[in-house]
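User: Hey, quick favor. My workstation is busy. Could you predict this chain's structure for me?
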Amino acid sequence: VQLQASGGGLVQAGGSLRLSCVASGSRLTINDMGWHRQAPGKQRELVALISSGGSTTYGDSVKGRFTISRDNAKNTVYLQMNGLEPEDTAVYYCNADYIYYSSDDTPVVGRQWGQGTLVTVSS
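Assistant: No problem, here it is.
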């Protein structure tokens, strides 16, 4: 499984950004997808998760400002970030929980992380 994230950048406080992350690979079923972030000197924290059925979970600090969505046909997850604050500055990592079926159809469960995309919010 490979994940390719895009959409990070520099924005002023109060502005918006949209992140995208595409999962690719063969013999896969993609289940939950989501975003985490890590600011300098801090632990990685949950931003948002979305199930294949569309159920969502958000970290407390982003509720009401960020919206996660996905396109199952494209194995793509999006994160719309509105009302950005300097505290949102971090590297954002997408993740995908998957089931991979080997050549003998043995299922292998795993979580893959994307390479990270930097979001910088200036005050």
